[in-house]
Known about the structure:
By secondary structure, the protein is of the alpha+beta class. It contains eight helices and 15 strands. The longest helix has 21 residues, at about 195-215.
Amino acid sequence: MTRLEQLLSDLVAIDSINPDLVPGAAGEAAIAAFIADWLRAAGLEVHVAEVRPGRPNVVAIARGAGGGRSLLLNGHIDTVGVAGMSQPFRPRVEGGKLYGRGAYDMKGGMAACLIAAAEAARLNLRGDVIVTAVMDEEYAGLGTLAVAERVRADGAIVAEPTELQLVVAHKGFVWLEVETQGVAAHGSRPHLGVDAIAKMGGVLTGLERLAAELAQRPPHPLLGPPSVHASTIQGGGEWSTYPDRCTLAIERRTLPGETGDTAEAELRAIVDGLAAADPAFKSTVRRDLVRSPLETPADAAILPPFNRRRPGCWASRSSRRASRSGPTPPRSTPPAFRRCCSGRWGRGRTRPRSGSIWPACSVAPTCIWPRRRPSAHERRGRAAPALAGALAGRDGRDG
Length: 399
Ligand SMILES: [Zn+2]
């Protein structure tokens, strides 16, 4: 068993289910203690900090000699629940794959970060390599938020499972809630009642219109258009009573440039319109969790050269223009492959089969779209240590 396999097995064997998802679950304390010990033994400077009682982050640093850039490797140590799994914490290897709760999301990536950080501690790097093993990614992301407040680095890699594809953009989300207020009354006395559930009908119709309008907006080249949907609805108590309140939870998925404020303003425009048209319409809007979208700058040093975008590529042109040029891609093509940076679909190219050469942008020479299949070296999962060395300023001669 390799060092990586052993480490991943050890991590999978530790129950670290997020207690915000499964009440009473183990949480991250045990796995954080294991990781802290492992990193100390590997020679890193280790800090364990509770974000919530009994739920710590581990932040460890492989100090560089000075003069290099710093790289942060991030992974979460919590998992979702284990419903339907017979032996979730007994890792087993089958066909070259390790199975168990969290093996894929994301103790595998976490193990790779730990090995890379241990390598960094061993090598004579100029810059620091920081590894952050964070709690609570599966619910509210409090662990990474705490890290982002206190830890600074020149570059960061989050080792979530992406099948070795670089994710350079991600949507955010805004959770919103609308409550409509009615007047409770017995069903036999309609002149006294105001039906809060019926009042929510206007909100739902407005939301559906907004969803259609968002779908028509110029898409982000990698993320597509923004979206909104109803999540849950609650209201009413019994058959014979006019409901006095109804609550609708809404999720708005945001693109870079959109914020909690912009998303809330759209919802407020809907309820304000309803209130203006109907004096009996009463509502309140509340904003819950907000998580920002991300977009890595096109010329960021953290991107390997073959993944950097050429200045003048989609990052600097209007998405609308890009979306209009070029033929329509084949229907069967997944969204991620529909358009290259130039807005054109490569002539005669089709969706790549697993293991084939990725479709390259045929127009822009340094397009964001992968121009080649990951090398065997990268596929074997050694990309992180190599990248750590490159970014932290390892000198080829003294490396
Ligand atoms: Zn994950």
